Amino acid sequence: MLQPRIPVNPLPTGTPIPLNHPAPTPAASVEPTAPAPAPAPVVPARAAVQLTPGSALALAAGGGAVVLVVGTVLVSMFLAVAITGVSVAVIAVVLRLLVRDMQKGR
Q: How far apart (Å, rounded) are the C-alpha atoms in residues 51 and 45?
């Protein structure tokens, strides 16, 4: 019941057999058509991007903003790691002192 059904190709010729067989279309009469219009002239593409002073200023301001945001994120991540490391070191020292006091029997 749940076995896959694989279609069997009765002619193993390597040519694909379409699943739906379209009905044959009758031969249509060919009528002459009007000549095609002339193609539009090709406009050469520019090789370089031209920056106006305003767009250059906007680009510099955007780049500066990106640098500030990425720098802020990296510094905050570094501070988070440093604070976590210092707190783990303080906890380790306190636990070491407590264990030493327990071993001495105080």
A: 16
Q: Residue 25: its pLDDT value, please? A: 67
Encoded amino acid at 67, one letter: V
Residue 69 has φ and ψ, to the nearest 5°, of: -65, -45
Which pTM value belongs to this model?
Answer: 0.44
Taking the alpha carbons at both ends of the chain, their separation in whole angstroms is 77
Cα gap 57→101, rounded to integer Å: 66
- Beta-carbon contacts of 11 under 8 Å, excluding residues fewer than 6 positions away, are 17
Alpha-carbon distance 15 to 12, whole Å?
Answer: 8
Quote the CA–CA distance of 68 and 62 in Å, as a whole number: 10
pLDDT tens sequence across 28-45: 666 667 677 777 777 676
